[in-house]
Specification:
single chain; alpha+beta; five-stranded mixed beta sheet; 4 helices
Length: 117
Amino acid sequence: MRLPFGSLISFTYLCITKPIRTMKKKVKPFNLITYKGKVYVTRTFKVMYEGGTHTHTIAIETLMEAFGEDMDKWDEQANALDQQIYFYLEGEKITLSGKEICKKHLDEPMKFIREIF
């Protein structure tokens, strides 16, 4: 099966199915969403901003592109998935550390607390 965003998905597949012995730190798998038979990477973070803690899921931008350009024409599944996503990241930024994503790549900086798998 050919998956979108080849190298990232391949990396994720390896993290899920095979231990990576050459790395000092244990690599945890990303969360995955399936939409119309294709798999997309998501990450869920517990963060702090505006005086409280929040849980947000981010996804790779190709998921939003798969929904289509016109939000009025999105199907029920696309709308339901989009309601769960706080932010869409472009390209391989989804592979950055949670701390870096929360600090530099969201619509507003947030304090990263932990990642939820």
